């Protein structure tokens, strides 16, 4: 079964817009877990635009309390700065069950591509080894809309346990009413990853609208991490009800 990890970055965006503590990121995460979500994801960015290091510490404690997966995402190459100790240092401090490495930059509005495994392998390999020594499962953010037959073999050779398929291009194609060719590419990428010995996660711009079609077409997705759409939909339906709707979609696949 595919599990749902709720990304609560967007709760922190609202909170930061006024300062103070509300809406409370930990309370929101607790509501998601009470509704049955299988884990919590955050993607702290060095510019502190949403979750900050203190949120990461508090969410690590919450997920330990619930006995669920904490998935920490970030760019392992971004240097530390005031208020952001660096991705590996954060992992060392909180030991997330899963560390998802993402090649993003401050100038990006959000994550918009995966790693180039041929180019980035030498730099990634020792970092992946360090994370595994911390007993983190390691997932690498990966493009799935290309057709490089060796991409996933390269990711596996870096030492990754999983890849996370970057689903932004799929979500765009789905919204344009032309998802079939993209789904075929994603299914092929998932199969290449599984043949190379890795499990497959997926995330970015997944929503109630596009999730079912994705999971019906792409084999054996272990986990989806969903934030932006889910938090937006929760403004209308409530957080717990929205999480339950996602769980119902997962249950139909
Ligand atoms: C890796 C990924 O797709 C998500 O972490 C996404 O980047 C959410 O991050 P933001 O909330 O900063 O857009
Ligand atoms: N890894 C993807 C994620 O955590 C959430 O992405 P989005 O749903 O906020 O686009």
Automatic annotation (TrEMBL):
Catalytic site: 43 (proton acceptor), 73 (proton acceptor), 204 (proton donor)
Entries under SUPFAM superfamilies matching the protein: Pyridoxine 5'-phosphate synthase (SSF63892)
Top-level taxonomic group: Bacteria
Annotated localization: Cytoplasm
Keywords of the record: Cytoplasm, Pyridoxine biosynthesis, Transferase
NCBIfam families: pdxJ (TIGR00559), PRK05265.1-4 (NF003626)
UniProt-listed HAMAP family: PdxJ (MF_00279)
Protein name: Pyridoxine 5'-phosphate synthase
């Amino acid at each position: 079964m595919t599990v749902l990890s709720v990304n609560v970055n967007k709760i922190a965006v609202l909170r930061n817009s006024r300062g103070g503590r509300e809406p409370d990121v930990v309370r929101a995460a607790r509501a998601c877990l009470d509704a049955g979500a299988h884990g919590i994801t955050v993607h702290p960015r060095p510019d502190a635009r949403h979750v900050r290091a203190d949120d990461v510490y508090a969410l690590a404690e919450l997920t330990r309390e619930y006995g669920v997966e904490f998935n920490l995402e970030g760019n392992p190459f971004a240097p530390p700065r005031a208020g952001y100790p660096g991705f590996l240092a954060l992992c060392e401090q909180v030991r997330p069950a899963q560390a998802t490495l993402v090649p993003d930059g401050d100038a990006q509005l959000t994550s918009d591509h995966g790693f180039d495994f041929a180019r980035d392998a030498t730099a990634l390999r020792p970092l992946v080894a360090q994370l595994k020594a911390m007993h983190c499962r390691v997932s690498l953010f990966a493009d799935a809309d290309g057709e490089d037959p060796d991409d996933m073999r390269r990711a596996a050779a870096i030492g990754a346990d999983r890849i996370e398929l970057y689903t932004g291009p799929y979500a765009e194609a789905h919204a344009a009413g032309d998802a079939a060719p993209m789904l075929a590419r994603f299914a092929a990428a998932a199969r290449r990853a599984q043949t190379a010995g890795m499990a497959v996660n997926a995330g970015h711009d997944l929503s109630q609208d596009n999730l079912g079609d994705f999971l019906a077409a792409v084999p054996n997705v272990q986990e989806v991490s969903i934030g932006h759409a889910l938090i937006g939909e929760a403004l209308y339906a409530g957080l717990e009800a929205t999480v339950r709707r996602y769980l119902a979609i997962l249950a139909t696949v």
